[in-house]
Design goal:
- This protein is an alpha+beta fold.
- Strands 1, 2, 3, 4, 5, 6, 7, 8 and 9 form a nine-stranded mixed β-sheet that branches.
- The N terminus is likely disordered.
- α1 packs antiparallel against α5.
- The chain has five helices and nine strands; from the N terminus they run αβαβαββαβββββα.
- The chain folds into two domains: 46 residues, no CATH class; 169 residues, Roll (Mannose-Binding Protein A, Chain A).
């Protein structure tokens, strides 16, 4: 029995060894599938800068501290609009998007920017995977375009509610940009790793060991 448990643990450890190992793979995805992750920052910032790079740097730094950014080779972008760029261009949605709780937020670009998260899930988990209901700077309309004079960098800007599954997730109201609110972050497109051939061979060997030990135990029990 101990050998069987050892083999099972060995197989599990092999499956989990990959690039993006610290970035969990949402349930239901298979090797080779693409996905993106989104979080709401655990700490806030003001929205007085008109430079989108300041917000991209803020969310990237949050991801880096949490160990899901530069150390893993993953780039994160702010879901935010300034006078120079729209959120739907700065944070490009290219595939399924999941929050850091592993919940499916949107099935793709159109679903993400249709004005309402019809799947009923908000981006309300932080970079650490902890649930958080927060006010979030976006400067955006529900379709991801800049909110006119209410973009980030102006005196007042649009904000959203992280726990909302309606258009309020990105456009709930306006507030003075001197106030500290969270930001949303979207990862680059990630791919569920496909094990190398030698890894598959070791995996199958491990599975064979588990099956073999189980079979012998069953025969001994029947004798």
């Amino acid at each position: 029995m101990q050998r069987a448990l050892f083999a099972a643990g060995f197989v599990a450890s092999m499956i989990s060894t990959s690039a993006y190992a610290v970035l969990f793979v949402p349930v239901g995805l298979a090797p080779g599938d693409s996905y993106q992750l989104a979080f709401v920052t655990s700490v806030g910032t003001n929205a007085t800068s008109s430079d989108i790079n300041s917000y991209n740097s803020f969310v990237q730094a949050a991801a880096d501290v949490a160990g899901i950014g530069s150390s893993e080779g993953v780039t994160w972008s702010a879901i935010a609009s300034t006078s120079a760029i729209n959120a739907n261009s700065n944070a490009m949605v290219s595939t399924k998007v999941f929050n850091m709780g592993g919940q499916l937020v949107a099935t793709g670009y159109t679903d993400f920017w249709d004005g309402s998260h019809t799947l009923g899930v908000g981006i309300d988990f932080t970079e650490y995977g902890v649930g958080k209901s927060a006010n979030v700077w976006t400067g955006s309309n529900t379709n991801g375009t800049g909110a006119g004079t209410n973009v980030l960098g102006n005196t007042v800007a649009n904000w959203g509610e992280s726990a909302s599954s309606s258009g309020n997730w990105i456009s709930r109201g306006t507030q003075s940009t001197s106030v500290n609110y969270s930001l949303y972050a979207l990862s680059e497109t990630l791919t569920v790793p496909v094990p190398e051939p030698e890894t598959w061979a070791m995996l199958l060997a491990g599975l064979g060991l588990v099956v073999g030990v189980a079979a012998r135990r069953r025969k001994q029990a029947e004798a």
